[in-house]
Design goal:
Keywords: Glycerol metabolism, Hydrolase. It holds the Pfam family GDPD. Belongs to the glycerophosphoryl diester phosphodiesterase family. By secondary structure, this protein is an alpha/beta fold. It has a domain of about 250 residues: Phosphatidylinositol (PI) phosphodiesterase (TIM Barrel), CATH 3.20.20.190. It is about 30% helix and about 20% strand. The protein contains eleven helices and 14 strands. The strands form two sheets. The chain has an eight-stranded parallel barrel with strand order 1-2-9-10-11-12-13-14, surrounded by six helices. Strands 5-4-6-7 form a four-stranded antiparallel β-sheet, with no helix packed on it. α4 links the parallel β9 and β10. It is globular. The N terminus is likely disordered.
Length: about 375
């Protein structure tokens, strides 16, 4: 079920002129890349944590942890998505937020993840050695409240190397290369960070499927320049937020980033696709794959609509529920017992082709979805 890739023996060494690598060169065109059918991808493993939510599902398993990744691997999915940052001593670690919080003697302390060494980062939360007690791990919500990171099933923070070594080998990794939206990065710094990540991938990925993605357009282009083994996708919220970097503000701009950088696909916030469905054909005509993320991807009907529209996959938080609902919608039902057709067992797990809808029917369904988006 998982996509297989061919490894190179090592990350290509870079010429001294790497910081001007694309100057004067013809821009590369995307090579074709397709996921293995319609893919359900686990967000940060089995789903992200929302500590202030009343929905217990968002506090079940610690996100971005080995436990979460292997929990997702129990379901028939091809990939999980997770966030990678690089510590100040050049170790790729898995953590979503730019800042990490702890509390000591009633005082909340804040540190930027990339300002920590690996040993400092791993001191937060549960420790691998049971006799050790880590720093109390906390998280700042979008509303600005700092909350204790309480989940039903906790786990230690982890590195990218540990994920490659300890997670079910057939499960693909969608590695989001994480950078601070508020920071302007020099090319030399981006190259240094990306080479740290690529070295771990080269050493430990073996034949595991890997996709890179990033909201940072320059980082996305660079990781494509630095290697050609693994596909690279550009992440965009497709206009749901306005960024100073115009390349991040629409699907049309995302297509241009991909064409300029020879990237293989786009990962869009799902509302942006539903608001601009014409962009799907533009993306396909540009020989690009399209994935989506966002809260609506936890609604089975919205996921099925994307399947109908030709989207290649969805990143979801409620992996079990979405797998169940999409299976019901996308698998051929068994014939009745009186049918002269072969026995039901021969129809188990036989995927049907995408249903055909007229443009008028799709427009009607999209109007219904647009009403859902606004509520």
């Amino acid at each position: 079920m998982a996509l297989r890739t061919v490894l190179v023996s090592d990350v290509p060494s870079l010429p001294e002129s790497v910081y001007g690598l694309s100057e004067g060169l013809e821009l590369s065109k995307p090579t074709s890349f397709r996921l293995p059918g319609f893919s359900v991808i686990g967000h940060r493993g089995i789903g992200m944590n929302v500590l202030q939510s009343s929905d217990r599902r968002t506090r079940g398993v610690k996100e971005n942890s080995i436990l979460s990744f292997n929990s997702a691997a129990k379901y028939p999915i091809d990939f999980i998505e997770f966030d990678v940052q690089v510590t100040k001593d050049d170790y790729p670690v898995i953590f979503h937020d730019d800042f990490i919080y702890s509390e000591e003697n009633g005082i909340v302390n804040e540190s930027r993840v990339t300002d920590l060494s690996l040993s400092e980062f791993l001191l937060y939360g549960p420790q691998k050695e049971t006799e050790k007690i880590g720093k109390t791990l906390m998280r700042k919500s979008k509303e600005g409240k700092v909350l204790k990171w309480d989940v039903d099933l906790d786990d230690s923070l982890c590195t990218l190397q540990e994920a490659f070594e300890q997670v079910e080998q057939t499960l693909g990794f969608n590695i989001e290369l994480k950078f601070d939206d508020q920071t302007v990065y020099e090319r030399e710094f981006l190259v240094h960070v990306l080479r740290s990540v690529l070295q771990v991938v080269s050493n430990y990925a073996k034949d595991r499927p890997v996709i890179f993605s990033s909201f940072q357009p320059d980082a996305a282009k660079l990781v494509r320049e630095l290697q050609s083994t693994y596909p690279v996708f550009f992440l965009t919220d497709a206009g749901n937020e306005v960024h100073n970097d115009e390349r991040r503000n629409s699907l049309e701009e995302a297509i241009q980033v991909c064409l300029e950088g020879g990237l293989q696909g786009i990962v869009s916030e799902v509302k942006g696709v539903f608001r601009n469905p014409a962009a799907i054909s533009m993306i396909k005509e540009s020989n690009l794959s399209l994935l989506t993320y966002g809260k609506l991807n936890n609604v089975g009907e919205a996921v099925y609509m994307q399947y109908v529209m030709g989207i290649d996959g969805v990143i979801v938080d409620f992996v079990e529920e979405i797998i169940q609902s999409t299976t019901l919608m996308m698998i051929r039902p068994p014939p009745p017992s009186s049918s002269p057709l072969p026995s039901p067992s021969k129809y188990d797990d036989v995927a049907i082709t995408r249903p055909e809808f007229s443009q008028k029917e799709i427009s009607f369904l999209l109007k219904l979805l647009s009403q859902l988006i606004q509520h």
